Amino acid sequence: MPRSVNSVAKRARRKKVLKQAKGYFGRRKNVWTVAKNAVDKAMQYSYRDRRVKKRNFRALWITRINAGARLHGLSYSQFMGKLKANEIELNRKVLADLAMNHPDAFKAIIEKIK
Q: Least packed by Cβ within 10 Å: which of 18, 82, 83, 93?
């Protein structure tokens, strides 16, 4: 039986990877083995960093809320504890936006929980 190869599919797979490597520097964009390694690594980073991005934003929101609360004599943990005790259900994203862009509204929240 003759040897069977599927060069059409092989070429398509390679073209797909080289297309993903478009914009890379040097041999990373046009040499198959180098481009494949570069694309694989980039995919690992993108998968990981989609999760890291969520952590970074939460940390940013907490920092902003803490700064806003300290202007009114509360720490972040005291502020969040009093929010929970008064059953005010605002998430950190909204609270951070209020603390940064709408200080009057944030002050009103602090007045309500004190």
A: 93
